[in-house]
Write a structure and sequence with these properties.
With 372 residues, this protein is an alpha/beta fold. Among the domains are: 16-53 and 186-197 and 262-366, Rossmann fold (3-Layer(aba) Sandwich), CATH 3.40.50; 57-161, no CATH class. The chain is 28% helix and 24% strand. The chain is built from 10 helices and 15 strands. The strands form 3 sheets. A 6-stranded antiparallel β-sheet has the order 2-1-4-5-6-7. It has a 6-stranded mixed β-sheet with strand order 8-12-13-3-14-15, with helices on both faces. Strands 9-10-11 form a 3-stranded antiparallel β-sheet, covered by helices on one side. Helix 7 packs parallel to helix 8 (295-309) and helix 8 packs across helix 9 (320-330).
């Protein structure tokens, strides 16, 4: 039995492509596979939202990564409600938000638990006031909106509003009778599929690693690419940019990037793993930048560090090499649920998840069936 998992199972209802997705079994390390546009990245986002307890900065980051913060309607570009219209993309079917609607919502929860269910609701302000989510009606300057709508987030039956402009400060004022609820978020890092990580982000993650004296763990992981790395540090230029540097055995310091783009990718994954201790790590298109010959070694490091740090990992892939190397490492684990392949398939009734582990993975591996 897999122990200490934040999400032993998962249900996502009405979020993006998922009308009602249920994953009955999750493991310590989970590899999400499926065709394009089936919702692999959306699944990672849903886990991130759940771990953050609906934090607005996470919502905004997700929308910015998909360019959903762009207001297409020129008549709405200078209004708070126009920016809020981008939230339609978070809901299944891209519903139209209007001033006469009541409520639409999506939920993310551990399937078999009544607690820790995260619920997002988009409604008219009138509906929110009547249902005691808000206690004020005048939330926007009256001449600056097209429809009175709000986003609220709730957990375990308690909700609060997260109304804000995407590029501005929150517009509602807290009321003594309806204070903003702060749920304790869980450690979580999202490693995006697109090429280079932001160097400022890497610097911040590295600073936290150093603060917790965990540098050796990162250096040990980097040995899958180069065993000569003795030290990592960041150099800050006059332009205040941050460049990761490394000291090799019997060599002067050089930029870490000189060792190849793959080393930056592995470095980011290792930093994210350490900074996700006790929480979740989300990796989109895990194979990006990794040569197929090192992918098995990379999985071995991910499995071992995830176990030691009590991190639950969710990764997506399109790569046969990534799937096969994952299967090899998963079959080496003592716990058959340490590694789970979650296969997403689209049917007429919607998207269905098929979790594979233990003998299922063994059968698929030796029969050379393509799980993608």
């Amino acid at each position: 039995m897999t122990e200490s998992l934040l999400l032993p199972s998962l249900r996502i209802r009405n979020y993006r492509a998922f009308e009602d997705l249920e994953i009955s079994t999750l493991g310590r390390v989970n590899l999400i596979v499926g065709q394009n546009n089936i919702g692999k990245t959306s699944l990672l986002e849903a886990v991130w939202l759940w771990a953050s307890r609906g934090d607005w900065d996470v919502i905004r980051t997700i929308m910015e990564a998909r360019n959903e913060n762009i207001v297409a309607d020129p008549t709405l570009r200078n209004s708070n409600s126009g920016e809020l219209m981008g939230l339609t993309h978070l809901f299944n079917g891209h519903p139209v938000f209007t001033s006469d609607m009541q409520e639409i919502e999506f939920e993310i929860s551990p399937t078999f638990f009544a607690t820790n269910k995260l619920r997002f609701s988009f409604s008219t302000i009138k509906y929110a006031v009547e249902n005691k989510i808000l206690d004020e009606y005048q939330l926007f300057p009256r001449g600056n909106i097209r429809c009175d709508v709000c986003l609220s987030v709730g957990m375990d039956g308690i909700s609060h509003s997260v109304i804000t402009a995407l590029h501005g400060e929150p517009v509602r004022k807290e009321s003594p009778s309806f204070p903003r609820i702060q749920w304790r978020s869980l450690p979580a890092c999202f490693v995006y599929s697109t090429g280079d990580a932001r160097l400022t982000k890497l610097r911040n993650l590295w600073d936290r690693v150093q603060m917790n004296n965990q540098e050796e763990m990162v250096l040990k992981g980097l040995e899958i690419l180069d065993t000569r790395i003795e030290k990592i540090f960041f150099f800050t230029s006059q332009e205040n940019s941050h460049a990761p540097m490394c000291k090799l055995k019997e060599c002067n310091p050089i930029p870490l990037r000189n060792l190849g783009g793959g080393v930056i990718r592995v470095f980011e994954i290792l930093l994210a793993l350490v900074n996700s201790q006790g929480g979740v790590l989300l990796i989109d298109e895990v194979e990006n930048g990794l040569h197929y010959k090192i992918q098995r070694n990379a999985w071995e490091v991910i499995f071992e560090m995830a176990r030691r740090l009590n991190v639950q990992v969710f990764a997506t892939t399109h790569s046969t090499d990534a799937v096969q190397s994952f299967q090899q490492v998963a079959l080496q684990q003592q716990d058959e649920k340490a590694g789970v392949v979650v296969q997403l398939t689209k049917f007429s009734k919607g998207i269905v998840a098929n979790p594979l582990f233990g003998d299922d993975i063994r059968l698929m591996y030796y029969s050379e069936e393509d799980l993608r």
